[in-house]
Amino acid sequence: MSLGGERVLLLQYDIITDDTENPTAIVLHGKLIPIQIKTAQTEKESRFNEEEVVAPLNGQVAKIKAEIGRKVEQGDVVLVLEAMKMENEIVAPAPGILKEVWVQETEVVKKGTRLFRIEPA
Predict the structure, then answer these.
(1) In the chain, at which residue ranges do the beta strands (DSSP E only) sit?
(2) 43-86, pLDDT tens digit by residue?
(3) pTM
(4) In the chain, what are the domains?
């Protein structure tokens, strides 16, 4: 088919949805192809959850144990957060490079405060 002088290919497919009406797959030429719909908001949330680590509780930053630019492995302690006289080790959720630390030692933080960002390796 031609449209505006350009040749275009028209595809016909069926959409498979889950019980919430979210597309989960398409059927194209008889093949089931899983799909995942991403909006700008879900993409932003996904990056936030993967790379940025937030304070799990209110507390005071007792010690920053990793240096910016350093490679960290999953489970490596990046900083220690003191809350109610207990030290809580905040670890790297995945391997990567520690790119940013947004807090300083002795800083008081609230639950949900961004602590650091790791760029996946």
Answers:
(1) 2-3, 6-7, 13-17, 23-28, 31-34, 52-54, 59-64, 71-72, 77-83, 86-91, 96-101, 108-109, 114-120
(2) 545 444 457 898 888 999 999 999 999 999 988 999 999 988 88
(3) 0.59
(4) 2-34 (no CATH), 51-120 (2.40.50.100)
